[in-house]
Amino acid sequence: MRNLTMLTDLYQLTMMNGYFKSNIHEDILVFDMFFRKNPSSGGYTIIAGIEQVIDYIENLKFSEEDIDYLRSLNLFGEDFLSYLINFKFTGEIYAVREGTIMFPNEPIVRVKAPAAQAQLIETAILNMVNFQSLIATKASRVCYSANGDPVMEFGLRRAQGPDAGLYGARAAVIGGCVGTSNVLTGQEFELPILGTHAHSWVQKFPTELEAFRAYATTYPDKTMLLIDTYNTLESGLPNAIKVFDELRANGHEPLGVRIDSGDLEYLSKEIRKILDDAGYPNVKITASNDLDEYAISTLKSQGAKIDIWGVGTKLITSSDWPSLGGVYKLSAAMENGELVPKIKLSEDPQKINNPGYKRVVRIYNKTTNKAEADLMMLADETIDESKPLKVFHPVYTWKTKIFYNYYTKDLLEPLFIDGKLATNRYKVKEIKEYAQKEKDSFWPQYLRISSPERYKVDLSEKLWELKNDLIEMRKRDQQ
Amino acid sequence: MRNLTMLTDLYQLTMMNGYFKSNIHEDILVFDMFFRKNPSSGGYTIIAGIEQVIDYIENLKFSEEDIDYLRSLNLFGEDFLSYLINFKFTGEIYAVREGTIMFPNEPIVRVKAPAAQAQLIETAILNMVNFQSLIATKASRVCYSANGDPVMEFGLRRAQGPDAGLYGARAAVIGGCVGTSNVLTGQEFELPILGTHAHSWVQKFPTELEAFRAYATTYPDKTMLLIDTYNTLESGLPNAIKVFDELRANGHEPLGVRIDSGDLEYLSKEIRKILDDAGYPNVKITASNDLDEYAISTLKSQGAKIDIWGVGTKLITSSDWPSLGGVYKLSAAMENGELVPKIKLSEDPQKINNPGYKRVVRIYNKTTNKAEADLMMLADETIDESKPLKVFHPVYTWKTKIFYNYYTKDLLEPLFIDGKLATNRYKVKEIKEYAQKEKDSFWPQYLRISSPERYKVDLSEKLWELKNDLIEMRKRDQQ
């Protein structure tokens, strides 16, 4: 396991040192991680990367070399550096279960810990959860467009560095991909890996036919041939069919053909016709080449005969929206034994955080089991499910809704309590299944790739009043 | 050093196995890595990531666990797995020096190695060079807009995973940033790291004034205060000036203020005026908040009084163009002791590769020392610099140019020969200086951020003819 203790912003360390010097580094602070917009202007976000946060927290430790390096910066005293030598996380972290669908402004991760600790871990938590949630969500959108067809993740060569390939492929599978080309991801996370051959294989041989034949000899029961090296319809496909015939004569059935260029709609229809006529209705057509949810959606609406989709660059980088803008904001601080809610003002009302030590509950319809709204509330508030539940819009407060036939679920679950792991660990396979259940629990209007309906996320009356009181108080302070 | 041997696409391993079974895995192949478009529709690309390619190649080794994992896939025989146990790179790699400016279709990395080896390393080389070149280029564009003002890289929390933060910050410094907030990058690559405090620091204290005072007490000679937590002009700045006065009374000079929200043009002008009037003309104004080369360019043209730029998300993800589309294409194969040029056809003429074992030379004007054009040629071609040199456009061949007063430089340099390291290793500081020299060697029309002039990249007559002959030959083959 890699130790990523130094994967942080310098200001976390200078603040830690400042807290230490003021002897307030053990004061308890509460931070919420949340984001303000769903990626790709979509209707939802699938949270991923939580397991990596656990690994990170469990491995937090400054090495001797780290301390020596920090000493060399001439920013820190020896007393602070000694404190770092013994540093470990002793606080509390709650987070949503990995694979959960979340919405803007909802706490995804809630940290309650001594000031110095809570500060150090901000950057890495954001880095891990921002990226994997981004890619899981993108993959979910791509798979939604593919409408049940298998989607394979192929983007390692264009990923933003090794980890982006490794964890991006992991997140893509969580979001719905059937597998990845990335061998390391397959190995580390026990996921299906996929791949056959490249153009270079075809070029290496004197002729395309010989190249195909050699591939079929190597993998007689797994023959998927890339047919667009020279000319898809005039050379690649006829040569592939010759080899398929040879395979069949020897008792093997070919799996498919793959195209990676050209007009995928036209080519796939032609290929399908020719394959069917040649007696290969079960041979699959795999296509790749700059695909994303929009391209797949268009191709499907045009009736392209593509069975399997290989998606690379645009998935692994979420190219139309390459970052989830998750932030980590102070929401409360322990003062004289009580958690005091904290707020940060902003000219932009959207950027004012929800103060306090909070929970998030999801309201489900008892008959359909579909999610109907989320409610953020203070942690000590309760809901009496035997009574109707009234919620209101946090800005247009006259917009209200009353639930009668409902039940609720808490979304934040313990990850660490008193610095100790307080959750089961989940395999990617389980997280993927959980994400699928999550998607099944929402009506399709929230999941569609363009112009989705906005899912309701409301504040409890108590939280809403607290927020407004704090804004007023801060404004008075400035006068 | 991390072993990234398994960071590859499965099809590399299935092809290797296929070559092995056909007993052609030791046949020598030549691959070129090149890209087809400059990022952000710009005029150039700064190549970065070469040092990581060296580390990767030097650490190539399949572990016992790797072999066990591959065995479990039921794709490979024991003879091939035994071959992998002893696998190491024994071939030749040439690459441009890290920090070199390159253009579409030019070989950046040239691999000549046994087929199985050349294939395995494709994915990781592309991953590393694609990403770091992308970010170095983006940083160069951002710094170009800042026109000499210091630019700091702040993007770790939004980077696409830990490595994207680590190596992205490295590349950003190569491209021109003065430093990064990323502590790990500072430690691993001996780079300046920067940072002061966040909004949470201000919120932690009962008042903003107390927070500023505590920070100034901790770092009396490095006081840079974030003044936009509550209200920049009405609270943050007056409180900062109070603390600056206290600092000065104690013999210290403050460094600056930072703003991270609001209208940066208006606020910076107001802040400058107030700071100047208060006797702090040397206090710097640092600004951040969704900046990139376009935003900085506009703010500067409006006369914003910003001295230092903090650039995060849009730099570390190259958000408007989040991948460099580098590819790795077979260009030659050893057959009967001779390197035979190879081509891949495509409906799209832009996608037809330049065949053969090639070099790239840059033509400089002897008087100005500015680069005038690049010429791709076969490796055994020479240039007689005592004679005029005529080049022609590879598509519009009637467009020609003759150089008289020139000298040339080979861009591809040895990285590995016979599997052994054949280059000096460079520190990031040296690479950054080299990249700056590279920029100085081009006229500004190629470097500007919008609508740049297209730099000439031509083919030698011999290479041009070879390419056309091969295209004709391949077309005849299909008839």
TrEMBL record, chains A, B:
Keywords annotated in UniProt: Ligase, Phosphoprotein, Pyridine nucleotide biosynthesis, Transferase
Record-annotated Nicotinate phosphoribosyltransferase N-terminal domain positions: 6-130
Listed Pfam families: NAPRTase, NAPRTase_C, NAPRTase_N
InterPro entries on file: Aldolase_TIM (IPR013785), N/Namide_PRibTrfase (IPR041525), NAPRTase_C (IPR041619), NAPRTase_N (IPR040727), Nic_PRibTrfase-Fam (IPR007229), Nic_PRibTrfase_pncB (IPR006405), Nicotinate_pribotase-like_C (IPR036068)
EC number: 6.3.4.21
Single GO BP term: NAD+ biosynthetic process via the salvage pathway
Biochemical pathway: Cofactor biosynthesis; NAD(+) biosynthesis; nicotinate D-ribonucleotide from nicotinate: step 1/1
Nicotinate phosphoribosyltransferase C-terminal domain sequence ranges: 358-467
Recorded catalytic activity of this chain's protein: 5-phospho-alpha-D-ribose 1-diphosphate + nicotinate + ATP + H2O = nicotinate beta-D-ribonucleotide + ADP + phosphate + diphosphate
Keyword Protease carried by entry: no
GO MF term list: nicotinamide phosphoribosyltransferase activity; nicotinate phosphoribosyltransferase activity
Domain Nicotinate/nicotinamide phosphoribosyltransferase: 151-340
PTM note: Transiently phosphorylated on a His residue during the reaction cycle. Phosphorylation strongly increases the affinity for substrates and increases the rate of nicotinate D-ribonucleotide production. Dephosphorylation regenerates the low-affinity form of the enzyme, leading to product release.
Highest taxon listed in the record's lineage: Bacteria
Gene Ontology terms: cellular component: cytosol
Homology family: Belongs to the NAPRTase family.
Function: Catalyzes the first step in the biosynthesis of NAD from nicotinic acid, the ATP-dependent synthesis of beta-nicotinate D-ribonucleotide from nicotinate and 5-phospho-D-ribose 1-phosphate.
Protein name: Nicotinate phosphoribosyltransferase
Organism annotation: Acetoanaerobium sticklandii (strain ATCC 12662 / DSM 519 / JCM 1433 / CCUG 9281 / NCIMB 10654 / HF) (Clostridium sticklandii)
Lineage, top ranks: Bacteria, Bacillati, Bacillota, Clostridia, Peptostreptococcales
Primary gene name: yueK
